[in-house]
Each structure stands twice: as structure tokens, then as C-alpha cells.
Specification:
The complex is a heterodimer of chains A (121) and B (108). Helices cover 0% and strands 55% of the residues of chain A. In chain A, strands 2, 4, 5, 6, 9, 10 and 11 form a seven-stranded mixed beta sheet that branches. With 108 residues, chain B is mainly beta. The chains are: A mainly beta (121), B mainly beta (108). Chains A and B meet through strand 5 and strand 10 of A and strand 3, strand 7 and strand 8 of B.
Amino acid sequence: QVQLVQSGAEVKKPGASVKVSCKASGYTFTNYNISWVRQAPGQGLEWMGWISAYNGSTNYAQNLQGRVTMTTDTSTSTAYMELRSLRSDDTAVYYCGRDKFGGYDEFIDYWGQGTLVTVSS
Amino acid sequence: SYVLTQPPAVSVAPGQTARITCGGNNIGSKSVHWYQQKPGQAPVLVVYDDSDRPSGIPERFSGSNSGNTATLTISRVEAGDEADYYCQVWDSSSDHRVFGTGTKVTVL
């Protein structure tokens, strides 16, 4: 069965960086993109970007360009999302998800359990 | 950037039908996906490509999309359907994905 298991909760100070991992199992890792989505407390879902596990190409949300880097390690079937220069409004639950291509575009068919990142001085 | 607008809340009695709308400019030309999120849990895909259901999702969940509005319909609503629901599309002009503002469904 497809599983995405994320790393544990993090507490960071403003200006620091965080790196969240997402270990995939139950499918061929390089056949699918991985997306990252975050959700601030009490707020809606915000798409952050995706990475191709096949060739490492990326597509980042405009508001995160320059602060976010998504990578993969195909030897361990793990995706990573690093966010730099953290601010208080980066406090959120961060989710990874497996992208599946439908008839027109991609959607997330499996989600990780989420990782809470708290940014506080 | 492309904006998807959902009503903040929908209330429905058990056994009745809930309709959750997702408004966007010419959304009928896009493929719409819907996610259900219960408190403290990760989202779950309930409808993709406007009206298809993943395996394991009850037939009570259905979707439609035309003009400027996409709709997720939950028939014969159960207490377990109480959750937040989000629509999502791909904006081809920016090559970015967009989520709707979310709708909280309350079962009375």
C-alpha cells in the first residue's frame, strides 16, 4: 500500500531554516511527482510546489520563490522540502503528497501525515 | 492569479443533500479536484477530474463542473461527512495549482 511518512515536528527561531522529509513506500518512487502543501493554524490549504522524482525538476509557488528548495533522494525514496529565512507566518502543518496524473492535470492521491513547523522566538 | 471562491460554511441535516460550490473564472474549462479534511487529519481525495471518484470513496460523493462554478454534491449525508472540503485546479497561465478557500460542512 502507498505510504508517505513525514519527519517529526520542529520548532525554529525566526531567520532559521527547516528541512522536512517525506519517505515514500508501496510504489515506484520515480514514477510520480511529489507535491508540498502547507496549512497555517485555522487556515486553508496552500500549494507550495512540486518536484519530479524522476528528474528533479521543480515548480515553486511564486510567493515562496527564493526561500524554498525541494529535493529527492531516489536511493531512499525520500523527498525533502527546505524552507529558509523562516518567519512567524511560516508556522503551519506541512504536507507532502503523491501526484497522480488524471486526464488533464495532476492531483494529490496520497498524502503524508503532516509535519508541524512552529516558528517562534 | 487564479482565484477559487467557496462558501465558508454549509449546514445539512442527516440524510439530506449537501452541495458545495467552487467559483472561478471559466472554471468549466479546467479539471477540478476535491479534498475532504477532518480535524487533525491530512486531506483525502474524494473527487478528481470534475466527477471521478477514487476507489473507496462512496458513490454518495459526486461532482460536476460547468461555466463559472464547480459543485461537489454529497447525497444522503452522514455524521461522518462533517469536515472541511477544498476544491483545487491547475492554473495553466501560471503553471501553479490553486486551492479553494474551503467550506466547513456541518451535519445538524
